[in-house]
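Practice problem: predict the structure.
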Amino acid sequence: RRESLMHHKFAIIDRQEVWTGSMNFSVGGAYKDNNNLVRLQDARLAENYQVEFDEMFEDDLFGSASPANTPYPELTIAGKRVEVYFSPDDDVLNRLVELVGEADQEVRFLAYSFTADRLAEAMLLRAQAGVQISGVFDETQARSNTGGEFERLKSAGLDVRMADTPNLMHHKVLVIDRQIVVIGSYNYTRNAEEFNDENVLIIYDAALAGQFLQEYATLYNAAD
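Answer:
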């Protein structure tokens, strides 16, 4: 009941597992658009998401009214480090800028909507330091967004392309140094950072990174 979005796409099952990612629970989200959905089995992670759910469903708290109270903001699942963030509570953009700034070799991204100046600046700085930066944008959003970052990155010589897909390229993914995957509902925009309810996972797992890089390669090779 407000202008900003409740933009989450997650489910908690039996307080033991979480399904989350970019996929809206719709026919288009599941069968037409390019999306991601991960399933993680961990009671502590489920508790994190349950707290967020209860704030909205039980306490009617959204956006800036939602407190920063995640019980386990960093945890280990199956031996892999996982960081958990909710927006606008947890300064997600600062963490993404830090991660990109720490990249040693490469940053690959898939961006449905990308208007965050600070994230683009972090990519430009790492590119100047020799880090390979490349990404795929959703074409409709890239052409229509006010303050979109596609032309800025392209003009600076970064290898960015527009997805050649019949539907939405709806991912919001960063893959850093083939080791770290950032996923969730969070577009790289001011609305996601300051107004919408969003969730983000940072997962340190080379095998998972490899799976996302396969999706990246498919979209990148077909892109303009």
